[in-house]
UniProtKB/TrEMBL annotation:
This is 1-deoxy-D-xylulose 5-phosphate reductoisomerase. One of its GO terms (molecular function) is 1-deoxy-D-xylulose-5-phosphate reductoisomerase activity. Keywords: Isoprene biosynthesis, Magnesium, Manganese, Metal-binding, NADP, Oxidoreductase. The keyword Ion transport does not apply. Pathway: Isoprenoid biosynthesis; isopentenyl diphosphate biosynthesis via DXP pathway; isopentenyl diphosphate from 1-deoxy-D-xylulose 5-phosphate: step 1/6. InterPro entries: DXP_reductoisomerase (IPR003821), DXP_reductoisomerase_C (IPR013644), DXP_reductoisomerase_N (IPR013512), DXPR_C (IPR026877), DXPR_C_sf (IPR036169), NAD(P)-bd_dom_sf (IPR036291). It catalyses: 2-C-methyl-D-erythritol 4-phosphate + NADP(+) = 1-deoxy-D-xylulose 5-phosphate + NADPH + H(+). Residues 148-236 form the 1-deoxy-D-xylulose 5-phosphate reductoisomerase C-terminal domain.
């Protein structure tokens, strides 16, 4: 078997680290071409020593100089690159077979889009790329013939439960609807009164999954599910009306596809991202992943309930933005990123997140941008608006 070269964008994060666990389990199959992060030098340094990539990329210049020095002292051959352009370079290099897109937020869009335009096999964790620029992104994938494989556990489950070779024609495939499961997050039982007082630490204590801080807050507000509804729309060419969300607190069923004949196909597994990562890496084959097997004899009951849009309005906002079309989802995402960062910094309360997003939507031009620069200008304008509303 020929060894496949992988670039990991967001290597130091939760998805990046899980990806490297899977890579380490299959040294005869995968080798790391490049590891990229923002500024976490020590973790990237340790990863470079273990995986010996040809390149390491950091955005922060001081962090890049420090990493260069550390690697030189350790006698490593890894070359350190710095800056945003380098992310695209290591995602499009001709030697690269696959790119794990696991930078958090809209910052992941440019390099992931570059990989799409270069026709790479893209393992997509960075859902914000599709939320911000779904139309542009899917167009690039179709034009270049890139292979887009969903890593997000729900979309990976849907991908597994849809017919092989599904081409986006729901009717021809006999699909009635996609059912996304949601854990409900750490505040599932909180009253509105209690939600006023929750802290960043409370929000980051997810009951089932260990994740980065931004997506943890998104999970707590149900914005993560909202982003995933939009992601499912683009990945599977499915209108909002045919995407349902059900709260399933045990996170055993990762999502389901309902067919015309009454069948519902689900994918089950432990709540461990290494399963969908391994699936995307090896597709259409399967490789082993270092995860604990589900035990049906000790699992207990699987339960289901409707999401509460009163307490968690972010999910409704996302459905509304998807239905509105244009750049509504991009503006929503930008506002959410600033609001979540402000909440994590202790500058606003949890319930202000949806309020700020709604206000940003009502103050922004939501018509569809014609190109990426125009879209990113709108993203920047929405960020500036929300930043201006947040107390210093
Ligand atoms: P983390 O916060 O754990 O990691 C984020 C990674 O992105 C880090 O490596 C960070 O580098 C890097 N990064 C941040 N900003 C930039 C930037 N401007 N340029 C380059 N690199 C940057 O996030 P997660 O791993 O949790 O999430 C990553 C993506 O995957 C998100 O889009 C999330 O929605 C998605 N996802 C995550 C899941 C999970 O279980 N964690 C599940 C499904 C989807 P540094 O460490 O140097 O800051
Ligand atoms: Mg998910």
């Amino acid at each position: 078997m020929t060894i496949q070269l992988i670039t990991v964008l967001g290597a130091t994060g939760s998805i990046g680290t899980n990806t490297l666990d899977v890579v380490a389990m299959h040294p005869q199959r995968y080798r790391v071409f490049a590891l990229a992060a923002h500024s976490q030098v020590d973790k990237l340094f340790a990863q470079c020593l273990q995986h010996k990539p040809r390149y390491a990329v950091l955005i922060d210049p001081q962090a890049a100089s420090r990493l260069r020095k550390l690697l030189a002292e350790a006698g490593s051959d890894t070359q350190v690159l710095q800056g945003e352009a380098a992310l695209a370079e290591v995602s499009t290099a001709s030697e690269v077979d696959m790119v794990m897109a696991a930078i958090v937020g809209a910052a992941g869009l440019r390099p992931t889009l570059a990989a799409a335009r270069a026709g790479k096999r893209i393992l997509l964790a960075n859902k914000e790329s599709l939320v911000v620029a779904g139309d542009l992104f899917m167009h690039a994938v179709r034009e270049s013939g890139a292979t887009l494989l969903p890593v997000d556990s729900e979309h990976n489950a849907l991908f597994q439960a849809l017919p092989a070779g599904f081409d986006g024609d729901l009717a021809a495939a006999g699909v009635v609807e996609l059912i996304l499961t949601a854990s409900g997050g750490p505040f599932r039982h909180h009253t509105l009164e209690q939600l006023q007082h929750v802290t960043a630490e409370d929000a980051c204590k997810h009951p089932n999954w260990v994740m980065g801080r931004k997506i943890s807050v998104d999970s707590a507000s149900l914005m993560n599910k909202g982003l995933e509804v939009i992601e499912a729309h683009w990945l599977f060419n499915t209108p909002a009306e045919q995407i349902k969300v059900v709260v399933h607190p045990q996170s055993v069923i990762h999502s389901m596809v309902r067919y015309h004949d009454g069948s519902i196909l689900a994918q089950l597994g432990s709540p461990d991202m290494r399963t969908p990562i391994a699936y995307a890496m090896a597709w259409p084959q399967r490789i082993a992943a270092p995860v604990q097997a589900l035990d049906f004899l000790t699992m207990g009951a699987l339960t289901f309930e409707a999401p509460d849009l009163q307490r968690f309005p972010c999910l409704k906002l996302a459905f509304d933005c998807l239905k509105a079309g244009g750049d509504a989802s991009a503006v929503m995402n930008a506002a959410n990123e600033v609001a979540v960062a402000s909440f994590l910094a202790g500058r606003i309360g949890f319930l202000q997140i949806p309020q700020l997003i709604e206000r940003a939507l009502s103050h922004s031009d939501l018509s569809l941008s014609s190109d990426l620069d125009c879209l990113l200008a709108k993203d920047a304008a929405a960020r500036a608006l929300v930043s201006g509303w947040v107390p210093a």
